Amino acid sequence: TPGAHPRAGAAAAAAPGAPAVAIEDRLLRGLASGGRANFAIEFRERADLAGVTSLDWIARGRAVYARLHDAAERSQAGVRRLLTQRGATFHPLWIKNAILVEHGDAATLQEVAARGEVARIRSVPKMALIRPQPSRGGARLAGAAAGVATNIAHVGADRVWALGTTGVGVTVGIIDAGVAYTHEAVAAQYRGNVGGGYQHDYNWFDPSVHSPAPIAIEPHGTHVTGTIVGDNRAASDAARERIGMAPDAKWIACLGLPTDGADFALSVCGQFMLAPTRTDGSEPDPDRRPQVVNN
User: Fold this and answer.
1) pTM exceeds 0.85, yes or no
2) Per DSSP, what are the bridge partners of residue 148?
3) Would the pLDDT of 149 be above 80?
4) Phi, psi dihedral angles at 170 (to 5 degrees)
């Protein structure tokens, strides 16, 4: 798993007095014969987040982003220069203080491992989507109000709505396989729906190809978004379908699943949720982060 600590293999000679760098055995074996592999470089420095919980919403988001970002910029600078000089393809991450290297070789790994600011180097795990099995559906619960779906009545969400809690003022961040943003169940709740048009900056991000508008490469993400906020907003109860737990909440999304390099898309989506960006990944703004993240 991404957070697991692999057994340390043979580490390259670090600078005098520097702690040894843990290198995953499996990664070393794979590169020993001259092959290439994706790998993650993790750094020793951790951002100091002391005191942020006492700050208000806006100040807290800005402080967490600034401290994480500054720690990564500071501690990764030397390794970034090294990788650039070697012509490597790499992706710096500030949310975890790590760098992901694409198709790296043994020589690059050993040179990186000799640096004292590096803590460990490991392979990048792969991931497969577990597809849900279709349901045949269930009978409508007795007493359920018109327009209230069975799932809502089953857990009593409609009784919470009656108390005045419907998700107003809350934004949910969706990290999944994308969202069909014009689908009738979720279109009105998309934060990028500005009435008569769409503003996708700060509301959608695709870390792989930077699609300028939300896409759904699998139906799973739209399904999940519907479970959270789904409501087709039909004028009549007979035509209305409220399938979401918080139908008055807003949603934004990042395309994180499915992917072969789990660390890359999921980590970048995590960064987007902490500091949403324009669709090209520029101008991060923690003030626009969601209150809830669903992955």
Assistant:
1) yes
2) 242
3) yes
4) -110, 135
